[in-house]
């Protein structure tokens, strides 16, 4: 079922959902299930599965030589979505990236999603590769998420890359896109970034999921600014509980977001990461309760592969 239908069916009740990251290749998928299982009692109608960009690894050759090779360390997004749908009978949403994929490869992924009965896809540009200082589109790939949305919309109309095909069972994907309450790091201004968001919605995006934020006012202002521009689709807040002391540096560095001083002080006062985890959970509970009271459609949690803290939050909020 489509995310927008889940929201409509909930009739104002806030839903619980979360995002998982595929395991590093070679790992047992059971580890993933062990992290999903404890969250199922909160009835997520959908679970997002991220896609990772390709990266370089070094393979040791004879004579101690190192060979640089490009690889995806966390493949399997669509397969994991199919297994989640099969095992838990909930919707699973693959993240589809522009970066690292040609349009042709994207079409294959979308066709797989259609055959597997996945009703939703999240259309994203992806970040720059770790060895590149800025995002570069794959040759024959998309430069912006808006263009990827356009390809998905075309497919919904039976328009494949090589021709339009008469079809009575075209894929009817519900399309999610990313939004940034504190502005995307490359955007020259908030206003410009909102204009880009509007373009994605105009291109056919059905809902927005936000980057993590720790100050709810930034989310409320972002939603208001989007509504003022005429963006009517649901805007789902993304919540990430702080779990380790180093998050104080990592999160602002990677996601270009601010942390409230009260949270920074509480984390800095912690003796160890066990205490940090507790601070992160308590902060996220307060944040979630305020968002819930404001009537957000879904509270979407970034689990980053570990669910115990998300469970602790969900137990208090749902
Ligand atoms: P876009 O919407 O294309 O925007 C990228 C930048 O380009 C923005 O600064 C925008 O303002 C600007 N822009 C847009 N259109 C134009 C234009 N026509 N001309 C000039 N500038 C323009 N990354 C992953 O690698 N894997 C994931 O699974 C993943 N999941 C995510 C889930 C969520 C909910 C969010 C919020 C982010 C996720 N990301 C993921 C990160 C995302 O890929 C990065 O933030 C990326 O840098 C931007 O992606 P986007 O889809 O927002 O890009």
Write a concise synopsis of the structure shown.
This protein is of the alpha/beta class.
How does this structure look, described?
- The structure is a single chain.
- It is built from eleven helices and ten strands.
- It is α/β, with parallel strands linked by helices and 318 residues long.
- The protein has one domain (3-317): TIM Barrel, CATH 3.20.20.
- The longest helix is centred in the C-terminal third of the chain and has 21 residues, at 273-293.
- The structure holds flavin-adenine dinucleotide.
- The site of flavin-adenine dinucleotide has 22 residues, from strand 5, helix 5, helix 6 and strand 8.
Number of domains: 1
Task: Estimate the mean pLDDT confidence.
Answer: 95
CATH architecture: Alpha-Beta Barrel
* Gross geometry: globular
Give the CATH level 1 class. Answer: Alpha Beta
Read across the widest sheet, the strand sequence of neighbours is 1-2-5-6-7-8-9-10
- Which molecules are bound in this entry? flavin-adenine dinucleotide
Largest sheet: 8 strands, parallel, barrel
User: Which range does the strand content fall in?
Assistant: 15-25%
- Could you say which structural class the secondary elements and strand pairing correspond to? alpha/beta
Number of helices: 11
Uncertain segments: none
Q: Roughly how many Å apart are the termini?
A: 22 Å
- How many E strands? 10
Under CATH, the topology can be stated as TIM Barrel
